[in-house]
Amino acid sequence: MRSAFYISDGTAITAEVFGHALLSLFTVEFKHQTVPFVETEQQAKDVLNKISESFQESGQRPLVFYTIVNTEIRKMISKSVGINYNFLDQFVAPLEKALGVYSMPEKHRTHSIHEKTYDIRIDAVNYALANDDGSNIKDYNEADIILCGVSRSGKTPTSLYLALQYGIKAANYPFTEEDMGDVLKLPPALKRFKKKLFGLTIMAERLHQIRSERRANSRYASMQQCRMELREVENLYRKEKIPFLNSTKFSIEEMSAKILAQTGLQRRKY
Amino acid sequence: MRSAFYISDGTAITAEVFGHALLSLFTVEFKHQTVPFVETEQQAKDVLNKISESFQESGQRPLVFYTIVNTEIRKMISKSVGINYNFLDQFVAPLEKALGVYSMPEKHRTHSIHEKTYDIRIDAVNYALANDDGSNIKDYNEADIILCGVSRSGKTPTSLYLALQYGIKAANYPFTEEDMGDVLKLPPALKRFKKKLFGLTIMAERLHQIRSERRANSRYASMQQCRMELREVENLYRKEKIPFLNSTKFSIEEMSAKILAQTGLQRRKY
């Protein structure tokens, strides 16, 4: 199998994202290898050897995606036996022209620590954890958004992603049987914060499957119970005009991006 | 201020990552605007209007980074009044030549749901939450890695990032005063899993600052206490040959990438 290398003197996240986006256009399988923090000549030599070995083993020239700030290291990697994509470089000159200023590559380091947004994200993660699963309704005034939905509809991973990726404080509230009663009404704890609410829902079959993995053959996991709960929450969302999304066919990234787009919520980290 | 637009008929994460990496080479400030899920002609028209308005307001042509699968929508956006970077496109033809196959753009959708890795990530997030902060030492046999360190040294956000981004099951264990005694020894719960341990440490000044935000003027937050705890854990790491990292100057992304690189741990999602 042909190898794809993602190399950087930083995290290599940029090289990975770009390389994956490009390779996903092809229905070919690759062996992915990320090599971050290549900061010394020796480390660069080691990577070049890995690339050569991979070429010899597979008989196919590896694809090499890289972003490297250090000029010497960059030059070394650019001479690998692979097919090299230094994809940032060819956009720099046109962008310099468009902006009318020179680039400052030595300042370049995405995904590294920026004190300000770093603390914001850690605070947001701590907030999401402290306000997960309806555990702490007294701090909802601090929330940027309150995700609500039935148990196992995707609230927790989405809250954490919003916190880690965007620095958004997302609480989440699970509608329980207690809330359901005869007809699900907006729980008193949420009424004051109605404008912050965002509903999640999910297909009954998928919910049944997820819950069955947790508690097989329970009433909690039964199709009947799943259908009933989802009907109630969707009715509530419509009645109370709470914006909502069905998480069944979306990734965590898609859910989060859709929530931002739909609510106009401002992220704290770009 | 000049605007930078990140546009896609998906999450726009690829456009953002590429655009940010490129713009971070310049010491110029931009107004960032992400517009994900541009799927209809009307939505494309709305974006084109936004770009035109931004041009009129600022007098500077906005930068437009986009990845769009739909041909019609892509054509529309490529005619914006901004400076357009369809950065994937120019790499496709050379890559087709290198691979000897045509690209299948209609199959292209990174950051969308892939059932298999999706479940792996959700499982990993649930595992990280259930095994956060030493709460559940009985499931360490399931862990891919066990992060250890003193309170507030960065264990929880790192565990969650490893889970969300890579599908890695990371437990975390906080060394407490009980563990310290006269000299910190490896707690019995961790002995069996020594090969899975990865230590975090942090500079005393930074730890003091973080703890002071939580409990000002407490013994817990005092410089003396912070110094003592950090000295003990670092001695333990060295004595027991536990690999460790100082989190003070690294982002969550950098910590996670360094941990993968240092341990050789295989991620479950690429």
UniProtKB/TrEMBL annotation, chains A, B:
Alphabetical UniProt keywords: Kinase, Nucleotide-binding, Pyruvate, Serine/threonine-protein kinase, Transferase
Known EC number: 2.7.11.33, 2.7.4.28
Binding site for ADP: G149, V150, S151, R152, S153, G154, K155, T156
Catalysed transformations (reactions): [pyruvate, water dikinase]-phosphate + phosphate + H(+) = [pyruvate, water dikinase] + diphosphate; [pyruvate, water dikinase] + ADP = [pyruvate, water dikinase]-phosphate + AMP + H(+)
InterPro entries in UniProt: Kinase-pyrophosphorylase, PSRP
Enzyme class, UniProt record, top EC level: transferase
Purpose of the protein: Bifunctional serine/threonine kinase and phosphorylase involved in the regulation of the phosphoenolpyruvate synthase (PEPS) by catalyzing its phosphorylation/dephosphorylation.
Family, similarity comment: Belongs to the pyruvate, phosphate/water dikinase regulatory protein family. PSRP subfamily.
Cross-referenced HAMAP family: PSRP (MF_01062)
Protein name: Putative phosphoenolpyruvate synthase regulatory protein
Native source species: Aliiglaciecola litoralis
